[in-house]
Amino acid sequence: MLITPTTNLTTIGHYVKTATLYYVKMTVLVTCTSVSLLAMNDANADVNDNQTVASQSIASQSVGVKEQRITDSGKRAVAAEKAGNITTKYSDYPSVIELYSDDELNQLIAENTHLKRVRADECQLVADIKVRAELVKLPTYQFLWGDMLAWGVCVDKNAELGIYFMRAAARQGLPRALEQLGRYYVQGKFVQQDIERALPLFEQSAKLGFLPAKVQWAELLIKGHGSPYDYQTAYSYLYNTVTADVKMHNKLTILLAKLENLMPKRVVIAAKNAAKYN
């Protein structure tokens, strides 16, 4: 075959054109790959940022919001059970019952309806109550857990452990725990009867304003227990009490009159004057 200069130029042009197209293709491929990698990095960064924000958001949420997540999870468990999903167990999910706030539990304890409430909630909060008593050491939950153990409400009865947690709550100054322990010592319930041991428990609870403790302390003093030096203080606590309960008001009036009979007039006046500044 005869090769002319024209043929050589055509061949060279063909190779140049092919090389140029290959270079362009490779450039486009590299550019696309770089863009893809940048997009992936940006996406990963967004995910990490979102996870960080989510973590911060969860950490900053209120207790009520966190408890709502527990409630929602529990509702899903109930729905799964009703749908016949045998692989889902209710116990695998948190309780659908919202935890009691400290104020709510204090109110239940003051009304002596705390155990009734635990039963009404079908014992679904036992694990949560135990954690808050044993690990968090909240006095209201220590008292509730102790009462549940002492009476065997939703748990196996264990009076010794129950009294232990009641004492733990009393040491933290929970008025109802102090009063209930004092009452148990008076009655000899769970513990050996020891009225003298009950007196300081009633006194401390009365000092914190718990009305049942004020009444029981005064009654024991009137019966001759304790020291006459405590008459004035007990009188002051009763005299300073405000109540809308007519029966309780009448009871306080009778106790005050009995204490007055045990004290010199000047001491009665001093007790009334002391109450004015409380």
Task: Report on the architecture of this protein.
The chain is mainly α and 278 residues long. It has 13 helices and no strands. The longest helix is centred in the N-terminal third of the chain and has 56 residues. It is elongated. The termini are far apart. The N terminus is likely disordered.
SSE order in H/E notation? HHHHHHHHHHHHH
pLDDT below 50 for ≥5 consecutive residues: which ranges? 1-40, 50-71, 85-96
Termini gap:
126 Å
Count the DSSP helices.
13
Rg (CA only)? 38 Å
- Outline: elongated
Estimate the strand proportion: under 5%
Summarize the structure in short:
The protein is mainly alpha-helical and 278 residues long. The chain contains 13 helices and no strands.
Q: How is the secondary structure organized here?
A:
Layout: H1 5-60, H2 63-82, H3 102-110, H4 114-120, H5 126-134, H6 139-151, H7 159-171, H8 175-187, H9 195-207, H10 211-222, H11 231-239, H12 246-262, H13 265-276
What are the main properties of this structure?
single chain; 278 residues; mainly alpha; disordered N terminus; Mitotic_Regulator; cilium
